[in-house]
Fold this sequence. Notes:
Distance between the termini: 10 Å
Shape: globular
Bound molecules: zinc ion
Structural class: mainly beta
Largest sheet: 6 strands, antiparallel
Strand content: 35-45%
Number of strands: 13
Radius of gyration: 15 Å
Order of helices and strands: EEEEEHEEHHEEEEEE
Amino acid sequence: MIRIPTQHGNAFELKAGQRLKVMTPLGPQVADLFCVFKGQPKDSLSSGRSIDYEDSFLFTTGNFLISQSGERMFEIEDDTAGRNDFLVAPCSAQMFRMISGTDTYHPSCLENLTKALQPFGVEEWQIGTTFNLFMRIGFTAHGKIKLLKPSSNKNSYIVLKSLAEMIVGLTACADEGSNGGVCKPIDYLIY
Ligand SMILES: [Zn+2]
């Protein structure tokens, strides 16, 4: 098991058939995930295709995550929290500037994913909408969205089955607002 410290991120390889279990050891916390096919870093995770082909914007056990070219990347095999987001981009320095109105440095999932994925040939501009594990976005009938407390509690987990050789970036989300006011670490296990 590997721990991603608070407000940090990692990148790693997965083989087809391997499972990625992502856990929240210390309480409600979001983890942003982005991935590309190994050797094809331009074919990356696509929120739009996943929502289209799965006929839903709420993803949990049984759903597939799909790439830009329409290939299946992950199957969600288990999900004790039951709610994940695939609508919003990872938190970024720009987002924190817009929210706080200052230029004070703030760590972000976009920065952490970029740093972790660059050695594998993934550029910052490619990192679009992440699969936001345990992130809960509420919505009205008119489509207005609202950030809610994470769906995860202490020791919640999700299991993703890899369907191809992939490069995966994963963060312990750096946005206090997305994590019930306090950012916490994320654990993951590959088996
Ligand atoms: Zn984040």
